[in-house]
Amino acid sequence: MRHPEFPLSKELIYLNHAAVAPWPKRTSIAVSQFAQQNTLYGSSFYLDWLKKETELRTQLQALLNAPSVADIALVKNTSEALSFVAYGLNWQAGDNIVSSNEEFPSNRIVWQSLADKGVEFREADLSSNHSPEEALFALVDKQTRLITISSIQFASGIRLDIDKIGQFCKDKNLLFCIDAIQSLGAVQFDVQKCQADFVMADGHKWMFGPEGLGVFYTSPAAREKLKLTQYGWHMMKSTHNYENKPWDIHPTAQRFECGSPNMLGIHAFSTSLSLLLEIGMETVEQKVLANANYLINAIKSHPCLQLLTSEARHLQSGIVLFKHSKMTKEALYAHLQKNHVVCAMRGEGIRFSAHFYNSTEELDKAIALIPQT
Question: Which pLDDT score, from 0 to 100, does residue 312 have?
Fold first, then answer.
């Protein structure tokens, strides 16, 4: 039986939350209501819309356990936020950045683009060491300025110990940047505990939000290290004083929001987060990891499937990667898509990413559809 908030088409088995998630029913209703209100009344309710924007910032503060709502900026996507960091810091020739060889392009090419400034981008091999964190630490030297890492890797699903990395960065006086797009909405996340300086994530994956709207967290001390690269009315201290001459930079993370907010996206994102916060991230994480573990066991029992995701519990996330011994990943992906299993082709195989609402019956059906010869 379908979850009441996810009345997906009956033939679909949706296992692609690490890519683009479906909206909850409540989000679809909220967007329709916003559109109708705008159609009938234009901006007459703009002050109410601003309250929804404030609510979203508060929800994101809670989701990240940020010290203050002032630490939360609403950005277009993860890539934009990473660019704010990469081009906001004052680099010196000879500086280096430590990351991994498994990063999504957004958390790789922006740092590689600093090569013309004499900045080196170092990639640790997360699979070559018993501890992926130690693989990162081994590349750090006196010229390292920052460690940037995905809290959960998009293809392999490796979940790093970000608390351990954060403590290392503090001990070494390094900046710590986290691409949290595969964590937020799937597992519990605490920016204070992991001591992150910068955290960013789009809303359209595990958080069930729309594309084109994400979160950018900065600690107060780290925020002051970033020079601004975008300017506009919304990043001024006196935001609605349009005759503001001279002007000052907004004292909070709103300084990274140069122009008009995405009000339609704000209504959608806030409504989707309300579902996660109602359920509670502890419960969501338990169900996400239980589904992942269920898939791992089913894959191991299948005669033709090889598990690529780590079986170590402390490394597990909502992402499960596997391959077929007799079919190419391209052929298996086409077969699954034809049979209405929504998933992704990543790395060396097929990626399943089930959320809290997916049933074990759905997972069984997806596995049963995979040829055994």
Answer: 86
